[in-house]
Write a structure and sequence with these properties.
two-stranded parallel ribbon, mainly alpha, 5 helices, 219 residues, 2 strands
Length: 219
Amino acid sequence: MAQSQKLRAGMGLLGTWARNAVLCAMLVGVAPAIAQTAGLTSQVLTLDQDRLYEETLYGKALEARAIAANQALSAENRSIEQGLAAEEADLTQKRPTMAASAFQALADAFDAKVEQVRKDQAAKIEAMKLQREEGRKAFFQASIPILAEVMQQLGAFAILNRSAVVLAFDAIDVTDRAIKALDEKLGDGSAQNTATQSLPAAPADGISLGTKAPTAPAP
């Protein structure tokens, strides 16, 4: 009798384990199926805007120019610093042979020169930052019509910036496809006169594609 009860209890545990195993297998199989379906029919797509900028030929060209400009300014700053240091050393050597008033006039002029140099170089840094921001903005503006084509080809109604999405399947991410499309149509951006294009600005948290909302099918 006791052995029979143990056997039934063991079979009950085995049945529970089997049911749980089947349920887990079903849940594991659901994710790929949903992802595949979402990738084919999703009305909302996602895009990694940072990757789009960093990995396209156009974005790489913009960054290369920004880096070159920064390096040139750094070299200029070093040259200016060396010149000012030499001028200061020369002024220090002259001090014992000059009247106090004459030396003070030269020292004041040198201090004013140093302050002006600092302002000028700081202005150049700010100008470089602004130029880089404008280049990035122009890049995303130029990408809008191409991204609109990608969206329409996939039958979607919107593209969201991936960083603003809490959870999404990789199947609806179109970053790789968008990078390829931009490289094919924009190249490194050298032939694009984006400054004169009247394109809508791309918002920080997504991509405004400027397309018309789809109309509902007639009943």
